[in-house]
Amino acid sequence: MDYAIETVALTKVFSDWWGRAKVYAVDDLNLQIRPNEVFGLLGPNGSGKTTTIKMLLGLLHPTKGHALLLGGDATDPKISARIGFLPEESYLYRFLNARETLDFYGRLFGLDSATRQMRIEALLEMVGLKAVASRAVGTYSKGMARRIGLAQALINDPDLLILDEPTTGLDPIGTRQIKDLITKLAERGKTVLLCSHLLADVEDVCDRIAILYGGKIQALGRVKDLLQKTNKRQIVTDAISDATIERIRELLQKENAACEISSPMERLETFFLNTVVQAQRQATPTSGAVSTTQIGDFLTAKSGKETVLDKLVTATVSEKAEAGPIRTEKPSPRETVVPQPNRDLLTKLTQSTTSSPVARTEPVEDVPPTTARQEKTPKSIIDALTGEKQPDGLTTRPTVAPKEDGGDA
Amino acid sequence: MHRVWAVATNTIRQALRMKVAAVFIVLLLVLLPVMGATATGDGTLKGRLQTVVAYGMSLTSLLLSLLTIIVATYSITSDIEQRQIYTVVTKPIRRYQLILGKFLGVVVLDVALLTLFLGIVYGVVVLMPRFVTASEEEQAQIHSEFFTARASLIPPLVDVSKEVDAMYRWLEKEDKLGVLYPNYAPEEIKKLLTKRVQLERRASTIGQMLIWEFQNVRPTDPNTQSLFIRFKYDVSVTPPDEHVYGDWRIGDLRGLKTGTPVDTPVYRVAPRRDPVRKFREIEVPTRAVAKDGYLAVAFVNPPLNDTTVLFPIEDGLEVLYKADSFAANYVRAGLLILFRLVFLACLGVMAASFLSFPVAILFCLVIFVMGAASGFFVESFGYMNENVGRIYTYTIQNLIRLLPRFDSYNPTQYLIPARLISWRLIGEVLLIMVCLKAALLLVLSLVIFRFRELAKVVV
Known about the structure:
The complex is a heterodimer of chains A (409) and B (459).
Chain A: E1 5-15, E2 21-33, E3 38-42, H1 49-56, E4 64-69, H2 77-80, E5 83-86, H3 98-108, H4 113-127, H5 142-154, E6 160-164, H6 172-187, E7 191-196, H7 199-205, E8 208-213, E9 216-222, H8 223-227, H9 242-254, H10 268-281, H11 297-300, H12 308-323, H13 333-337, H14 343-353, H15 358-361, H16 379-385
Parallel strand pairs in A: 3-7, 3-8, 5-6, 6-7
Antiparallel strand pairs in A: 1-2, 1-4, 8-9
Helix pairs in contact in A: 3-4, 4-5, 10-16
Chain B: H1 2-17, H2 20-38, H3 45-81, H4 84-89, H5 95-131, H6 136-145, E1 149-153, H7 161-173, H8 177-180, H9 186-201, E2 203-204, E3 209-214, E4 226-232, E5 234-235, E6 243-251, H10 254-258, E7 267-275, E8 279-285, E9 295-300, E10 309-310, E11 317-324, H11 326-352, H12 357-372, H13 374-388, H14 390-394, H15 396-402, H16 412-415, H17 423-451
Antiparallel strand pairs in B: 1-11, 2-10, 3-9, 4-8, 4-11, 5-10, 6-7, 6-9
Helix pairs in contact in B: 1-5, 2-3, 2-5, 3-5, 3-11, 3-12, 5-11, 5-17, 7-9, 11-12, 11-17, 13-15
């Protein structure tokens, strides 16, 4: 089987001036990441995460061993054309503005001018920087620079996305958006390598994780397998009376099970999102990034392997393309013939993996919730954030209209 | 190719927006016109024009050289130090394309700025005669001695080796070498003797005639133009007023030798009085040149003088004639500067491919200064290797040969005396400085950069 990323005995030793070995940054690392997997590389600071990524991409030469990306060498243009990379910090040309930055990277990929134009607009919309797109990126805040860094990594619609600490400096909405994006890309058959020490991010989106320490893998496996406590059960209910609680306690005592009863806390993430929704309803002006949950059209457009989900997504994309001013990549005729989402299939599919009732009631233009990761933030909040819900599937405009460029009315 | 171009345009943007180029551009835009308005030279119109061209070209060349070094090194080192290179080299671009893109960006910037500034200097020079009050004589002078491109003929050195050998043997036999030339190596003594004998051939005692013969003199238009005999006197005894008399004859003097009649006239210049150790020019109609391109120049030291008159070996005498227009010559002068900038761009890129910014820029400046004074270095090390030994001949001398020779290809030394910059010279500089030395540097930088660990942290 071809792995998306495979390392064989990958080792990096940093030596001092005399050539004496000083630090084993990465030590005999054997990693196999399958295509279409969201893989999380975790570890404390200095555990070798970034060094590993740099070796994968050819920025550092391994002392020993080798790494294969998409079955080849990352320095080969054929391979690197299919890779998106977001480094640990957004290292951008400070003198360029957002549009020029993305245009520059687009040109490095050899994209033609029409494609570049289309993708740049879509990405700027997605990362919410359209209003400030003509400001030099040197003047951006860290989070805004991060957003451009992310857009830069996506401009080639990569098959393999390597994200080094993608959520540092981002507000919770941006973090949420990146997580949604990762999920979405995974659904389209892309592979994502995510490197972070923010455990919550990793936990939400990753299929498998590896924990590095001292350049070695300390733990590796599926998130669920690693975290699920099979000898515990949790029941969440609506507010119930004390009498009922007593009866439950009695029941449990018969089974000799210990039990703990409290009111669940709202997640801070959810609370934060709610608060910002309130503020945006009142149209508080902001000079920063505008929050959207949109994901670039071209990123959700057709891919080689079509799934039911892809069809669902494409159906709305083609509608959008007609309504909107920016033409997206043309969906193939076969896709436009089936504009109606196949709801039965979707239901079956989602039921097998999730218990969320949301999946059946939501319009399909947003991230179709397919896995348990989606449960934590109710869809309605995301929708509210991006403005009124629009029945025809048209997306969402930032509510701070005065900041917008006139270009995309 | 368009990936290379993407990097190139980005480099140009960087140079312009990071204010590096802006400083130089503003400086030149202010200085060049001011210089045109204030230059006086030796007071004549020709002198003013020469001053403007000399300073304008030198200033443009110097500032653009510095700009090239700074942009070429900064553009690469800052990408590495500020790590933008992480996102660039992980895109489908080969590392050599990145380096070529940087190089191309610098060269395109250079071409644009060079065209702009040399255009300004040209405009000032061409317009100046219209706004300056000058006598008709002066106006005529600038057309024949400044707004032109004159080819130069220098009398070939006579081979005097036999004479020198005989002289050396004689001195050896008489045992006078140690007295006359103490502590000199035999080669050095021979060199000194050669110089002496050659100078003797170019010395005229009172009443003696010196004749120089030139072949292949081909002026552009034989009927309307003039030839110029440019000379500098030296004397054995300096007269009190520092002037000597000269009696010149110019034309086809073969008739005098053989007694046969010739078609072309022989011009006899009225005896003239000229200062010593200063360049002077005699103007003669081009008809003095015979149809087969033969021309002779004769000088007689008249008895009015009380001294031997000499013509120094390097620049004692030459024949100048118009061979091309000023504009064409000016363009070629610009090309010479461009070649220098291309070399410096390669040098900057090479230094940046393995050094950090401050070290790279220091390295480039050292090479630049050494290149600008390469004649001095070649000469000083030349003396050294005779005295100290063969080690220098095999090490430093070869290194010095690798240095660029900016001073010997300095365009102002051609434009001031309105000398022709021949296409041959352009080809020579292109071949040696660009195709050989600069290309070598560029290839070196590509190799270094190809194998460099870009993310390596050097502490």
